[in-house]
Amino acid sequence: MAELNLVLLGPPGSGKGTQGERLNEDLRLPYYATGDILRGAVRDETELGREAKEYMDRGDLVPDEVIVGVIAERIDSSEALDGFILDGFPRTTPQAEALDAKLSELGRGVTAVLLIDVSDDEVVRRLGGRRTCEANGHVYHVEFEPPKQEGVCDIDGSPLIVRDDDKPEVIRKRLETYHEKTKPLVDYYDSRSVLRRIAGEAAPQDVAEQIRRTLATLRMEQDEAV
Length: 226
Ligand code: AP5
Known about the structure:
Elements: E1 4-9, H1 16-27, E2 31-33, H2 34-43, H3 47-58, H4 64-75, E3 83-87, H5 93-105, E4 112-117, H6 120-128, E5 130-133, E6 139-141, E7 160-161, H7 168-182, H8 184-190, E8 195-199, H9 204-225
Helix pairs in contact: 2-3, 4-5, 6-7
This protein binds BIS(adenosine)-5'-pentaphosphate.
């Protein structure tokens, strides 16, 4: 079967992490979420974490040169030979160009970019109610996807917390950053014919179903091409 190199694109709170977790289970491909990687580094107080923290707390992006190496190393690893799921990367045009360059060095390319489309108002509603598992980053929402027991992760039993960057003023800044720096990637990938639009304001299971159908079509196209 052909490899599947997927990118999840969308504003903060659009559901990239929610759908990424499901895809990771369904497809059994490595899932690289740069936000989770960076939060882990902050928690572990590594050099990467120390470098990234102030940018993340402000709702800014960490510098391209810091994050590009982190992803390039993972894509080049043996676990990613059949493909991968990227969440939160690329986020700027230089990052997208660096990803293309790395993949082309390996004789590969991006298979599809799934754009999860959600309005700014919906982003604010979602991030205001998000709860995140402290140990492994599993995602919940107090209203839309509540855990079975309040404040406790269904999967690993660890406490659910509010992320530092889910404060209202930081949410606004993250949205601005998205529109300025990341949204141009919609045209970037559309012009390369790999963009697939997903209506992200549906319920999580409906969004998952749209993604499943999109990937099934993609597989058929891949099969027809060989
Ligand atoms: P990151 O962690 O990637 O944050 P983000 O892109 O802002 O995305 P989020 O994690 O906030 O949202 P999501 O789309 O995953 O939505 P979720 O599924 O949680 O990055 C954090 C920071 O790290 C950045 O600000 C930056 O500083 C830095 N960084 C990361 N990558 C970088 C890069 N490449 N370059 C530079 N800097 C980088 O869902 C949100 C909520 O909605 C949840 O509560 C969920 O339960 C709920 N929900 C999900 N789907 C639905 C639905 N369909 N209906 C109702 N509720 C839903």
